[in-house]
Specification:
The protein contains 27 helices and 35 strands. By secondary structure, the chain is an alpha+beta fold. The longest helix is centred in the N-terminal third of the chain and has 20 residues.
Length: about 775
């Protein structure tokens, strides 16, 4: 009795039959439908009330990997706005008369599917006069205020409809609502749905369309072969092709599959510059392509020579240049990038179109070739979408989808007509196998590189040469929502960085703070051996963490004061020492503002000048100090030292610092006699850092600027006595490390003889902190020492 139920069963039965027959090569067309003759109900897998609901589109997601068409045909916010679009429009009859009808756009109707219905009047209870099923609309055109609909050959009614709106703006609105449901059937339509819509103007596309023809290729037909002359360029209109990379002269039995491509992708672009096929292409289903033959292309470029350059710059150079901008792909050679390019899918997006929604399970990695997008995240308290970032040409997003199945952390909305390249995880893994690369190492490096790009102080401290080591030592771990990472009282030996998601830090059932992407936690376990966790950490959503052991953390960060400054500020808070303030970018910026307001900036400016001098000196010396400093470098060293002398040291100088007379005389003598070595300003630096600590640090800790710093690093307000003891050790050892530093010397020949001084002003090593905690002396005794 239920026509829709009967049609759905027949449809599923037929799909099961096809799946069994084609096995792993089977891919269901999301546009497949049955039309029941009795009640004219159109039954499809997309607009089917028996298979989907507004609140659950997961069953639709499993039907097709063509995400662009899928989102335009499911219950997205865009389509919900279109549902119920209505108004008076004139429809032309067979005899050419215009009849005024009231049209309503209905999506996923139980009996008619998605359709455009028209009525005699605008009353809700009026019987529908006629139906135009949207799944059978092959094209939509607008001419002024006229709308022309062409129907597919499967449609039982009229082959076309002509509608006349009251204004051109109204026609634009209706055409925009109908376009997402259209399957192109002409070469021009295919071009307009492809990347050519954004790289060629209207006249160029029309010329190209005239030179192309529609060609059908049967299932399992080899359309082109790797290494052979490229004679045709194709735009895939319907069906699916396979891209194979290994050359095989004997019929393709040993070809290696890189990826499958769906409409509207292209292949055969080597034809434009007279090259050979860079891949073998096979029709996996019956396919229809818009084809441009080589001889017709040459005739075309004689009339429009600029066309060749525009196409080649986009199809070849443009895509390769985009791939080079992706940090974790930048080290690949050109041959590997060419292989990867063939696995990419190029999609056109219109303004306000959704690439993916927050919460969707990630399937693809995206690169913006042309245009721009905005990143939106839902505010849990208000339910509103908040714009959190903008991305334009050359940017990329969604790479976490390449390594694991996890929900998207935000929605991506296109802001203007755009070209976006994408690659799915299966294709990317196939490429890595061909290139001999390890996926997890590649992605770990990408995640850490992203943190450094975000200018998070902790990650800014990682030297470039240590990035491969960090990528190797970090583990990527995925946690479900409300999963416990560790509990208060557990022995802690690991450090965590949040790549994706959010975690809550709580103590005795009270949430202390929530941490998002780019933040880290578990650092208290790095302060002392076998220390216990001081809080419980639970995920607030699906979360991806980079995890590093205590031992590996030491190897990376022991000699990085900026990283340890971040840790000290987070743990010590208002007890953080002067070195943590000076070595943390945000804290230093706020401290500079504070000193400027106090008219006491000279000590800090002097300290910064001394640090720049020392870094320049160290950069131009070998590790063992045996390298001679060349003449130009020697002049620069002398100039920097003399600038410090004239600006900060000499009595009466513009920004004279407050140091003892004997110290001032020693520095002046060393510089003026040319005895300039790495630690020539050592004693002076100790003095001015001590002055800033004693005179200004306590007051600075009470300012809003310092509070801002603590909020940024995620300072823990509530921690137990053992951790507080560890923090006291941390801050004391900062000063002790400075005082224990030795001095180097320089012989008269200019060769620097370096002692084991370490970096001046360096934070204490984690190992030193641990040893201090394990000693028998009390904190007070250690401080006295």
């Amino acid at each position: 009795e239920d026509g829709v139920a009967l049609g759905t069963l027949l449809l599923i039965h037929h799909l099961i039959y096809e799946a069994n027959r084609k096995e792993d090569t089977f891919k269901m067309s999301a546009d497949r439908f049955y039309q029941l003759k009795d009640d004219m109900a159109v039954v499809s897998m997309i607009d089917n009330p028996l298979l989907t609901t507004d609140s659950d589109a997961s069953s639709i997601n499993s039907l097709s990997t063509d995400r662009q068409r899928l989102f335009m045909r499911t219950s997205t916010d865009n389509l919900k706005e279109l549902d119920g679009l209505e108004g008076w429009i004139e429809r032309r009859s067979k005899l050419g008369f215009w009849k005024k009808r009231y049209f309503r756009l209905k999506l996923r109707d139980r009996f008619f599917g998605s359709h455009l219905g028209y009525f005699q009047d605008d009353k809700e209870d009026t019987k529908q006069k006629g139906t135009i099923p949207l799944v059978q609309v092959s094209s939509v055109y607008k001419e002024g205020r006229l709308i022309k609909l062409k129907m597919s050959s499967g449609h039982k009614g009229k082959t076309s409809y002509t509608l006349r709106c009251r204004s051109e703006n109204e026609a634009i609105k209706w055409v925009g609502a109908l376009k997402p449901f259209v399957k192109a059937t002409t070469v021009m339509d295919v071009l307009n749905q492809s990347a050519f819509r954004l790289i060629l103007d209207d006249s160029q596309r029309q010329s190209l369309a005239k030179a192309m023809k529609v060609t059908k290729f049967h299932e399992r037909t080899w359309i082109s072969k790797l290494g052979r002359e490229s004679k045709i360029f194709c735009l895939l209109h319907t069906g699916r092709i396979g891209v194979y990379m290994n050359k095989d002269e004997g019929g393709g039995q040993n070809q290696r599959l890189l990826t499958y491509q769906t409409p509207v992708s292209f292949f055969g672009e080597e034809m434009f510059d007279g090259g050979v096929c860079g891949a073998s292409i096979r029709a996996e289903t019956e396919v229809i392509c818009a084809v441009l033959e080589k001889k017709k292309f040459f005739k075309l470029i004689k009339k429009q020579p600029v066309l060749k350059g525009q196409i080649l710059n986009f199809l070849g150079k443009g895509v390769i240049e985009m791939l080079k901008k992706v940090s974790f792909l930048s080290n690949l050679d050109i041959q590997d990038l060419e292989v990867l390019r063939r696995g990419l899918h190029c999609s056109t997006y219109q303004a306000e179109q959704i690439v993916f929604y927050e919460g969707d399970i990630g399937e693809r990695f995206y690169m913006i070739l042309k245009g721009s997008v905005v990143i939106q995240r839902k505010d849990c308290s208000t339910g509103k979408e908040l714009e959190v970032a903008k991305m334009d040409e050359g940017n990329y997003f969604g790479e976490v989808a390449l390594i694991m199945d996890i929900g998207r952390t935000a929605s991506v909305v296109v802001k203007e007509p755009s070209l976006i390249l994408s690659i799915n995880k299966k294709t990317f893994r196939s490429f890595l196998e061909m290139a001999g690369l390890d996926l997890m190492t590649v992605m770990r490096a990408r995640i850490i590189e992203a943190f450094k790009k975000f200018k998070i102080p902790f990650f800014q401290a990682i030297p470039d040469e240590k990035f491969p080591f960090v990528a190797e030592k970090c583990r990527i771990e995925k946690y479900d929502k409300n999963e416990t990472i560790f509990e208060e009282g557990d022995i802690g030996n690991e450090f965590y960085i949040i790549s994706y998601g959010q975690v809550a830090i709580s103590k005795e059932g009270r949430v202390l703070t929530r941490l998002d992407s780019g933040k880290y936690f578990g650092e208290a376990a790095l302060v002392s051996e076998e220390s216990k966790r001081t809080a419980t950490c639970i995920t607030c959503m699906e979360t991806v963490l980079l995890t590093m052991s205590r031992e590996d953390f030491k190897k990376v960060f022991d000699h990085n004061p900026e990283a340890l400054a971040d840790v000290e500020l987070k743990l010590a808070g208002k007890n953080a020492g002067i070195r943590a303030v000076l070595h943390h970018p945000l804290a230093l910026r706020e401290f500079t503002k504070f000193l400027k307001s106090q008219i006491a900036l000279e000590s800090l400016l002097c300290w910064e000048a001394v640090v720049r001098f020392r870094k320049f000196y160290n950069y131009n010396m070998s590790e063992d100090g045996s390298q001679q400093v060349d003449g130009e470098k020697r002049k620069e060293v002398n100039k920097m030292a003399r600038d410090i002398l004239e600006k900060f040291v000499k009595v009466g100088s513009d920004q004279e610092v407050n140091i003892p007379d004997f110290m001032r005389k020693n520095v002046i003598h060393a510089v003026e006699t040319g005895e300039i070595y790495e630690d020539v300003f050592f004693a002076m630096e100790v003095e001015i850092v001590g002055l800033m600590r004693n005179d200004k640090l306590s007051t600075f800790r009470t300012t809003p600027g310092f509070r801002k710093v603590l909020d940024t690093v995620g300072n823990y307000e509530d921690m137990d006595a053992n951790i507080k003891k560890s923090i006291k050790i941390l801050t004391r050892r900062s000063s002790m490390a400075l005082r224990s530093a030795g001095r180097g010397s320089m012989n008269r020949s200019g060769t620097h003889v370096r002692k084991n001084t370490g970096m001046l002003g360096q934070m204490p090593k984690i190992a030193e902190i641990s040893e201090s905690i394990s000693e028998d002396k009390s904190i007070e005794e250690k401080a006295a020492d």
